[in-house]
Amino acid sequence: MKKVEIFGIKFNNLDLDEALQKIKSFLENGKQHYIVLPYSEFIIRAQQDKEFRKILNEADLCLCESRGLWFSLRFLGKELKKNIYGVDLILALSQKLKIQNKKIFLFGGKEKVVKKTGDKLGECIVGTEHGYQDLDKVVEKINKVKPDILLVALGSPKQEKWIYYNLKKMPSVKVAIGVGGAFDFISGYIKRAPKFMQDIGLEWLWRLIVQPHRFKRIYNGVIKLGCLILKEKISSHIHNS
Ligand code: UDP
Question: Which among 89, 96, 117, 228 could bridge 183 via Cys, Cβ 3.0 to 4.6 Å?
Answer without folding.
Answer: 117
